[in-house]
């Protein structure tokens, strides 16, 4: 796997996975080929929509919300493909099931970690509201309280969330599983595994961007190299190069905060602090109120963005959980052999 000290090296340690999934000489019927092409073309279009129009979109909450929405749509696409393939669970190879169940647990863990960080960031909104209330007055006592709340906010925002830090290890294990089990004597299985590969690549990319944003570390970014024979390969490579490159530029600039809306709030806070500490005379009172209004607008925009992103992550969690539950129900109904103890323990983590 990619070494932490060498984040720019493309990750592709296992060779071309499609030597296993679609080996030379494999035949797909026109119907199966049409299903696969439709899936990959849709995936390419979703990735194309995610390409930022300009660098300011990268690590904005609106872009992250869009990324999560497209991820949800892609995971729904794989459910539709499974139905269209008419490939019942009883015909699934046991290794496919193991990979699916294991990956779904990892994705649920990532969702929980991301949700906890979004919630933590949103808690800072309460401190900003205290600042705004205390700035309604120009009394020295209120200024002291406002300064205390500002200090609390900055300390809160700069703290680290261990759950998000652990996302890196989970992502690394997901990358290792990109090397899918070999498919024998099943054209439908080959289509399914190739489609799942695309879903996993997109998922790892988005989750690694979120992990980098929330940890403040470019080392959490992942550079994946995919076979150029895939219909979505060129679009994905351009997207990954564009987004990861800009994120690394943001980190190298030494900014204390990298989320765009959070950075905007921090700019307002830095302008307010000196004025509050030095006191405000009547001439400066209007300037203080302008800064207060500016902080209020930016704080509300940050809170609204975090709320929308929370809904996106929750939706993704539900899609993964629903798909996992459906598979488990089908397994029980078909008496397919799997490890129920391990599955049940992981599902409730």
From TrEMBL:
<dbReference type="Pfam" id="PF05633">
    <property type="entry name" value="ROH1-like"/>
</dbReference>
<dbReference type="InterPro" id="IPR008511">
    <property type="entry name" value="ROH1-like"/>
</dbReference>
<dbReference type="GO" id="GO:0016020">
    <property type="term" value="C:membrane"/>
</dbReference>
<keyword id="KW-0812">Transmembrane</keyword>
<comment type="similarity">
    <text>Belongs to the ROH1 family.</text>
</comment>
<keyword id="KW-0472">Membrane</keyword>
<keyword id="KW-1133">Transmembrane helix</keyword>
<protein>
    <submittedName>
        <fullName>Uncharacterized protein</fullName>
    </submittedName>
</protein>
């Amino acid at each position: 796997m990619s070494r932490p000290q060498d984040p720019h090296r493309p990750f592709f340690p296992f060779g071309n996975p499609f030597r296993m999934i679609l080996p030379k000489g494999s035949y797909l019927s026109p119907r199966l080929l049409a299903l696969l092409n439709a899936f990959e073309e849709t995936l390419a279009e979703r990735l194309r929509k995610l390409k930022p129009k300009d660098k300011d979109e990268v690590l904005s909450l609106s872009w992250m919300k869009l990324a999560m929405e497209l991820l949800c749509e892609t995971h729904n696409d794989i459910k539709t493909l499974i139905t269209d393939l008419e490939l019942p669970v009883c015909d699934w190879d046991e290794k496919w099931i193991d990979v699916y169940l294991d990956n779904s647990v990892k994705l649920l863990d990532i969702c929980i970690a991301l949700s906890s960080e979004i919630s933590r960031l949103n808690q800072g909104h309460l401190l900003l509201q205290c600042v705004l209330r205390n700035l309604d007055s120009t009394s020295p006592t209120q200024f002291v309280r406002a300064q205390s709340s500002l200090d609390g906010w900055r300390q809160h925002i700069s703290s680290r969330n261990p759950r998000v830090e652990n996302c890196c290890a989970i992502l690394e294990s997901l990358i290792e599983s990109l090397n899918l089990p070999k498919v024998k004597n099943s054209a439908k299985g080959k289509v399914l595994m190739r489609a799942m590969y695309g879903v996993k690549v997109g998922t790892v990319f988005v989750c690694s961007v979120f992990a980098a944003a929330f940890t403040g570390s470019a080392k959490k970014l992942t550079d994946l190299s995919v076979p150029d024979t895939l219909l979505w390969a060129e679009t994905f490579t351009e997207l990954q190069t564009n987004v990861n490159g800009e994120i690394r530029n943001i980190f190298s600039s030494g900014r204390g905060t990298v989320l765009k809306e959070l950075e905007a709030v921090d700019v307002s806070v830095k302008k307010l602090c000196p004025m509050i500490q030095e006191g405000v005379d009547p001439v400066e009172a209007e300037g203080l109120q302008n800064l207060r209004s500016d902080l209020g607008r930016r704080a509300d925009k940050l809170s609204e963005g975090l709320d929308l992103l929370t809904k996106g992550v929750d939706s993704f969690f539900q899609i993964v959980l629903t798909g996992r539950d459906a598979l488990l129900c089908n397994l029980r109904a078909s008496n397919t052999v799997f490890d129920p103890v391990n599955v049940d323990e992981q599902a409730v983590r």
